[in-house]
């Protein structure tokens, strides 16, 4: 039954197994306690104290109270029910490319989405698990001669994250080729949402307006045959290498572009002389102004302060109120709606 837990032997090697941490005294092996939850006839293994910095592209974040890897949609139901039973928040994590974890960690369940199923439905339709890397999907389909997801090659997240945020680049966005989405609601029930029944906008999707937590489990895309898709994706990848700090720890573009005839955020930051601006271990990239870089020793508070400094300066100079694309994840999580 939901909420039935049994503590397993300290240090048992289950999936992630033993983790090695290095302290000032040198390398040492730290065994993480694991627990097992059973619900609806399924058994899911959780770890205690996994450092979220290891699962964030910024490399920032303290320990999770409970951490679980999810490979099947039904396992996500177990994680959701346990979060309700224990009255703690659930945070679904993809590649950690659009979130900022607190140094104090997360006082709830972090579910790492590894649902990476891939099914060719024929005639250019593909059903893809929400945990599959979006950039890998874009490269794979483009190289196989399908057009529509070339832009995804430059987006370092998962399919689920791309659907939830309606991610886009190069004048394309996820909803352009979306057919339908399967998702899990906050009550643990599965639904299918047709694209023509929903309203998508710039970095907006209907899932952002639903009672949380919402978990996208899979998406169906409609692509078209093209003999130019392979060349186009290679062009996008080359442009990305030239214009983005790919070899530094970043979370992609931090701010949404303001639209309404305003210049892109990267231009505004550069125009106001903020490239290279530093707060503690956080800094504005010299390559792209909308990328913030995490250096060794960077703390969550450094990145939050840098974000606020940029917003304040742009507001003062232009009157524009910037909005973040990334999400700060507080230790207590978000209020369950």
Q: Which SSEs are present, and which pair or pack?
A:
Layout: E1 4-7, E2 19-23, E3 26-30, E4 34-39, E5 42-47, E6 64-70, H1 73-85, E7 90-93, E8 99-101, E9 106-113, E10 118-122, E11 125-129, H2 134-143, E12 146-147, H3 159-165, E13 168-169, E14 172-173, E15 178-184, E16 190-194, E17 215-222, E18 224-225, H4 229-243, H5 265-271, E19 278-279, E20 282-284, E21 292-294, H6 300-318, E22 327-329
Parallel strand pairs: 6-9, 7-9, 8-22
Antiparallel strand pairs: 1-4, 2-3, 4-5, 10-11, 11-17, 12-18, 13-14, 15-16, 15-17, 19-20, 20-21
Helix pairs in contact: 2-4
- By DSSP (H or I, 4+ residues per run), the number of helices equals 6
Strand content: 25-35%
Portion of residues in helices? 10-25%
Radius of gyration: 21 Å
Structural class category: alpha+beta
SS elements, strand count: 22
Largest sheet: 5 strands, antiparallel
Shape summary:
globular
Low-confidence stretches: 1-29
Strand order of the largest sheet: 10-11-17-15-16
Mean pLDDT across all amino acids:
88
Distance between the termini: 24 Å
Order of helices and strands: EEEEEEHEEEEEHEHEEEEEEHHEEEHE
